[in-house]
Amino acid sequence: MYGYLDASADTQWVRIMPVRDSLFYNPKEIDATVTLQELESGETVTLNDSLFHFSNNRYAHNFWTTHPLKPSGTYRLEAERSDGAASHVSVALPADFPIPIAYIWEPDDFTPDRIEVEGIEQLADVQVIYRNQGRHFPINHIEDTVIVPDGSYKVYIRPWEDIETINTDLGEQLEIPNENREIFVAAATDDFPDFATIDDIISTLPEGISNVESGVGYVGGILSKTIPYKSCFDDNLNRIPCSPTN
């Protein structure tokens, strides 16, 4: 099992695959019924199966549902085979939090831009998503985050460095204005792993980071907000949160 449940998303996606000896997998049906149960109410839904085809004849089953999830809820995700064998994981979702506030400076001002996030237990992820002609270029900034004494987070962004990284990887020279950028922020509960400090090799091992019972993998719980890459102000020119785009 691998993926995350997002209380802000309109569709949940989780990868469910049998343990196997090779990355290669035939495009056949999977012997699994996957359910998601809200533990507080007992309400249970069955997820739909979708077969994804990747390069080099690799296939994966991604299960999905449009059932809405509740902030602060706890959910049990279970995959059961026809012979009764099952794997499951319990996922706690974080509470809702205030819309982050963006401090975005002029493009020719080489002062780092800043995002301030309050009212969360733990910052799970923060990205700037750059868009150009239908292409998306997410740049992670979790390592550019500072926790201040009141428990809030400040994320420092140097967009000129992001653009240089994108152009170097592409071998192109793209111009991506602020209106073609978004900021993605995801909160989690305090038991969410700090992936930035975990060794890359350990994180790729099946048993390296796993919260799945009778199986391997990791399923996390988040609540996310996506905001435009700009600063917003009220009528008195006080800085305020911008309306989310998601």
What does this structure look like?
The chain is 7% helix and 42% strand. The chain is built from 2 helices and 18 strands. The strands form 4 sheets. Strands 5-6-2-1-16-15-11-12 form an 8-stranded mixed sheet, with no helix packed on it. The chain has a 4-stranded antiparallel sheet with strand order 4-3-7-8, with no helix packed on it. It has a 4-stranded antiparallel sheet with strand order 9-10-14-13, with no helix packed on it. The chain starts with a strand and ends in a 6-residue tail after the last strand. The model has no long low-confidence stretch (mean pLDDT 90).
List the keywords.
246 residues, mainly beta, eight-stranded mixed β-sheet, 2 helices, 18 strands, 7% helix, globular
Principal-axes shape call: globular
Helicity level, as a percent range?
under 10%
Output mean pLDDT.
90
**Structure classification:** mainly beta
Order of helices and strands: EEEEEEEEEEEEEEHEHEEE
- The total of helices stands at 2
* Rg, alpha carbons: 20 Å
Low-confidence stretches: none
Report the end-to-end length measured between terminal Cα atoms.
Answer: 26 Å
Strand-residue proportion = 35-45%
Describe the largest sheet: 8 strands, mixed
Please provide the count of β strands: 18
